[in-house]
Design brief:
With 306 residues, the protein is of the alpha/beta class. It is built from eleven helices and 13 strands. It is globular, with a radius of gyration of 19 Å.
Length: 306
């Protein structure tokens, strides 16, 4: 099986490529930075990986390289909580997902024979934020900026169904692994300065990176999987519980909160991603028979941090 991946050099994408390569798949890496991709996936270590330069939001000859691929995974998108949400950055966040997915779908529609499946990322930001509500795949969308981004993102992905291609949309929670969001939280704990962010009452819906990779593999290989699935562990926690569990696993105190205003000063509106959360349950994911290696936060953090 040959799989094309957009967003392959990112936190999740690079782990997925490693796993696919290990399992004997051929992988086509679509990347804006071929020099970086060649460092990450050297031809000696990854002989089954082909690297192709692409411009995510523009049509081009890269689209022809999807011909011959059995499946496409689209994980590409501008980072959401890395910098201040200026109007320009918000436009980048939207375009990278909406136009990026549009160009992937355009490429799939052009090919003959077509890939059998597109696995497209979305995010639990689709549901909006709440301290009290519980969301599953049947819940309606929120009405804030991230919810609007997710709606536009998914609308573009849905167009692939008109070409007879199976579509799986994975709404990702916070992905836990050595790097990503957790990587930023580890340092304060190491320095005995860890603690909850903001009120601590906001929900934190998460998934271990290995569970996410396994879920993507299941989506690629199980033809009965179709539609939207929440890529979150079945046991979301509040931010204060995340902080306490990190403290226990790292044998560090977890009492020093990060005040909301400090994050707001750094990220502006983007601080909402961390300061407001949502309790998301993977109802359809469990119904599809997916088995979690790390259903509980303690086991996930123990594996990652030790």
């Amino acid at each position: 099986m040959k799989v094309a991946i957009a967003g392959a050099t990112g936190f999740v994408g690079s782990r997925l490529v490693e796993r696919l390569h290990q399992d004997g798949y051929s992988v086509l890496v679509l990347t804006r930075n071929t020099a970086f991709a060649q460092k990450v996936f050297s031809s000696q270590a990854f002989p089954n990986v082909e690297i192709v330069a692409y411009e995510p939001i523009a049509s081009g000859s890269w689209q022809d390289t999807i011909t011959g691929c059995d499946a496409v995974v689209n994980l590409a998108g501008e980072p959401i909580a890395e910098e201040r949400w200026t109007s320009e950055h918000k436009q980048k966040i939207l375009n990278s997902r909406k136009l990026g997915t549009q160009k992937i779908v355009e490429a799939i529609v052009k090919t003959n024979p077509k890939p059998t499946v597109l696995v497209n990322a979305s995010a639990i930001g689709f549901y909006g934020t709440s301290e009290t509500a519980t969301f599953d795949e049947t819940s309606s969308s929120g009405n804030d900026f991230l919810a609007e981004v997710c709606q536009a993102w998914e609308a573009e992905a849905n167009k692939v169904k008109d070409a007879g291609v199976r579509l799986v949309i994975l709404r990702l929670g916070i992905v836990l692994g050595m790097g990503g969001a957790l990587g930023k939280m580890i340092t304060p704990f190491k320095l005995f300065a860890g603690g909850p962010i903001g009120s601590g009452r906001q929900w934190f819906s998460w998934i271990h990176i290995d569970d996410l990779v396994n879920l993507i593999l299941q989506a690629l290989t199980k033809p009965e999987m179709e539609g939207v699935f929440n890529a979150t562990a079945p046991n979301p926690v509040r931010m204060v519980d995340l902080s306490q569990t990190m403290g226990q696993v790292m044998n560090r105190p977890s009492w020093l909160p990060v005040p909301a205003f400090a994050l707001e000063a750094l990220l502006g509106d983007g601080a909402k991603v961390v300061l407001e959360g949502q309790q998301v349950l993977p109802k359809r994911t469990l119904e599809a028979g997916f088995g979690y290696q790390y259903p509980n936060l303690n086991s996930a953090l123990t594996e990652i941090l030790n």
